[in-house]
Amino acid sequence: MISLPEALPITLVLAVLVSIFLSLERHAPRTRVRLWAYAWALTFMHFFARAMETRVAVVPGLFVAIDFATLEFAALVFLASFLFETTERSKRIAFLAVLGVPLVSHAFAVGLKLGSATLQAELVAVIVLVAVAFALLMPVRRRKQNIAFAMAVASVGAWATYRQARHGEWAAVVAILTITLTLSAIYFLKVYRRASLGVVTTTVGFLGWAAEYPVGVLLHVFYPSFQANLDFWNVPRILVALGMVLTLLEERTRALENARARAQAESVLLQRLSNITSRLLAGNDPGSLCGEVTSAITEASSFRCAALFLLGEDRRFYLAGVSGFSEQEAETLQMHSSSYAVESVKQLRAKGDKANDKSFRMSSSSDLTLIPMISWRGSHIGCLYVSDSRSAGGTDTQEMVRLEVFASDLAVTFENVRLHQQLVRSEKLAGLGQLVAGVAHELNNPLTGIIGFTDLLTEEVRDAKALNRVEKLGNEARRMKRIVDGLLRFGRQNNSVTRSTPLDAVVRDVVQLREYHLRTHSIGVDIRIESPLAPVGIAEDELKQLLLNVLNNAIDAVEESAKREIRIRALNRSGRAIIQFEDSGPGFTDLARAFDPFYTTKPVGKGTGLGLSICYGVVQECGGEITLSNLQPYGACVSVDLPFAVAQPALAEPAKATWW
User: Fold this and answer.
1) Are residues 48 and 154 in the same domain?
2) Using CA atoms, how far apart are residues 111 and 116, in angstroms rounded to an integer?
3) Cis (ω within 30 of 0) for the bond into 633?
4) Within 10 Å of residue 283's Cβ, how many Cβ atoms?
5) Exposed e or buried b per residue across 551-578, where buried means at least 16 C-beta atoms within 10 angstroms of its C-beta
6) Any idea what the CATH number is for the domain that residue 593 is in?
7) Residue of 300, 268, 274, 305 whose CA lies nearest to 289
8) Residue 353: which CATH number?
């Protein structure tokens, strides 16, 4: 028993501590701090009840029961705050409820002297069994230490149960408080893994608090005349409270230091990105700067490893930059990257475990994270792969947001560089188109005269040998006329007339024009058109010329191949029509020059080199886009991106797959 003057100082101190922790929790809401405030409030009630035990006699033993119950439950709340993560709210509530009910029941049974010693021993046994069950059901990563804790709890609990059954009420209370406070010290040290002043003070305080009860029992047994001052016994509690406050201040200081370091890292990252962006816009090859991008990430973020994959012309990824990985790991990444296409990234986005808004975990058991690089047009440019975070608590959310923004900026930069290259090519082709259009107009007049006089000579000449020569002259003149017409079409100006053409019908018509040639040369054509597909915004004649030129190129490419197949796909992607021609030929020799006028790899006399140039002009005129790529291990793909017509009539019937 303690007197009111003796209890008053520590009671006031505990009241102040409760106010401090409630204030800390209000300014920086944290579950653990809130639990500490609750535990100190229960400790305050414990001292208040002890001071009232001999002064208020409403019910005999009531304040003794409250004394035991609040102290034991306070120790249990301390343990729960360290034992579970802040996000494991349901587990924490279950732990406090399942263990708290028998614990409080035992305290009231002892304080009010309710029931027999056997009943009280049974309550102790329930507490021990529940504690052992929780220890064994903890996460697998702590399996060995949990088994050791379970064995220790079971051993001490068995002794306490035996003593309780023999009317040793104090033995059970001492055992419960000693085990709970000792485990609180151990798990506090596991939560805050550092040897700072606050952590050491709190740990020592908990251990001293736990040792206080068995030491008190021993002193009572062996030195019954020993009377220690109350302030001496309260030293461990004061150490725990001060240590907790110091720990929170240390956490705040560390958070400020980390925030300052992250701000500096973000500044470095933005500066590096700005420099890289400027060099990209200045015309540098994006592929040559990818190594600097990954180095900037590993130097200015908490991730030790970073890899940058870009999407190649074959729609598959290739390793463009790497930092932090060993040579063997880089080779493995390079080897596996070619087996992943853009569709695999889309599947990961649809099904993957999200690390943040735009990033995805590659594995639930590791910190391997994939950040897709998507341009402002919605097209995939590549992906950023980071792993091995230096942060002790795992990946920082704010840092991941910055990396996602970084990846988006890179995607936009790479897309702008690509569009810039297309613009340069368009301007070059536009200038060339004006030139050839002027030349073509000048050539048209003499060619018209040559063809006209050739027709007149054909009617007048009677000699067979001379007639044959005149006909050859006319045929060559007409061939020149076709070339000139192609040049004029290549250099024509935009036509703003509204156009609308059903795509599926034109595709079938174009293939039907070459049906005989396809059948006689055993070339298989697989046509698959997504249904329904709206009309496209291009004139029918222009669309037929466009598709026929692409189909002719595909036919020429596969004629000498062992496997003769052409696949035609038409689908709706992001509100635009995509027509893809894939062939099993050798592929493009030089993708950079494929659209240049008069550039051809076909034998002399078989092609003029204007087919793809004309296609490019037609597509650009209607606001579309045409891209070329080589397939692996062989083959080529021509992808035509066309806008849908503004006014969309009734949709056509879905096309069925056709083979020849």
Assistant:
1) yes
2) 13
3) yes
4) 10
5) bbbbbbbbeeeeebbbbbbbeeeeebbb
6) 3.30.565.10
7) 274
8) 3.30.450.40
Whether 157 and 128 have beta carbons less than 8 Å apart is answered as yes
Report the CATH number at residue 435.
Answer: 1.10.287
Tokens 């796909």 -> residue? 569
**Which strand (E) or helix (H) includes residue 565?**
strand 565-573
- Of 612, 573, 607, the C-alpha closest to 590 is 612
Question: Do 427 and 406 have their domain in common?
Answer: no
Burial (Cβ within 10 Å: 0-12, 13-18, ≥19) of residue 633: exposed
The pLDDT assigned to 391 comes to 59
Structure-block tokens of residue 116: 């027999």
Instruction: Assess whether pLDDT exceeds 70 at residue 54.
Output: no
Half-sphere exposure of 120 (CA within 13 A, CB side): 25
Euclidean distance between CA atoms 169 and 540, whole angstroms? 97
Pick the residue with more confidence: 190 or 317? 190
Tokens 């028993």, located at residue: 1
Q: Quick one: tokens of 620? A: 């650009």
DSSP state of 385: E
Residue 89 in tokens: 């709210």
Alpha carbon distance 207, 205 (integer Å): 5
CA-based radius of gyration for the chain: 41
Please name the residue ranges forming H helices in 195-282.
197-222, 230-281
Domain interval for residue 155: 4-196
Which of 97-106, 168-177, 333-342 is the most confident on average?
Answer: 97-106
Number of structural domains found in the chain: 4
Neighbours of 191 (CB within 10 A): 13
State the Cα–Cα distance between residues 342 and 323, nearest whole angstrom: 23
What count of residues does the chain have? 660
Q: Is residue 149, in this structure, part of any structural domain at all?
A: yes
In terms of domains, do 41 and 169 share one? yes
Confidence of residue 385 (pLDDT cuts 50, 70, 90): confident
Q: Is pLDDT above 50 for 144?
A: yes
Average pLDDT in the 432-446 region? 71
User: Do both 475 and 378 map to the same domain?
Assistant: no
Evaluate whether 527 touches 542 at the Cβ level (below 8 Å). Answer: no
How far lies 215's CA from each of 159, 279, 367, in Å? 17, 73, 47
**Domain final position from 467, 490, 513:** 490
Q: Pairing between strand 576-583 and 625-630?
A: unpaired
Q: Using CA atoms of 158, 162, 163, 166 in order, give the dihedral in degrees to the nearest 10.
A: 170
- In whole angstroms, give the CA distance from residue 233 to residue 235: 6
Can you give the three-state secondary structure of 25-69, one letter per residue? HHHCCCHHHHHHHHHHHHHHHHHHHHHHCCCCCCCCCHHHHHHHH
SS3 213: helix
Segment 549-584, tens digit of pLDDT: 888 888 888 887 878 899 998 888 877 888 899 998
Question: Do strands 565-573 and 524-529 pair parallel, antiparallel, or not at all (unpaired)?
Answer: parallel
To the nearest 10°, the Cα dihedral for 159, 163, 169, 173? -10
C-alpha span between 484 and 443 (Å, rounded): 7
The one-letter amino acid code at 633 reads P
- Angle value at C-alpha 621, between 620 and 626, nearest 5 degrees: 25
Claim to verify: residue 513 and residue 481 sit in the same structural domain: no
What gap in Å lies between CA 528 and CA 277, rounded to an integer?
Answer: 41
Coil/strand/helix, residue 303? strand
Same domain membership, residue 599 and residue 524: yes
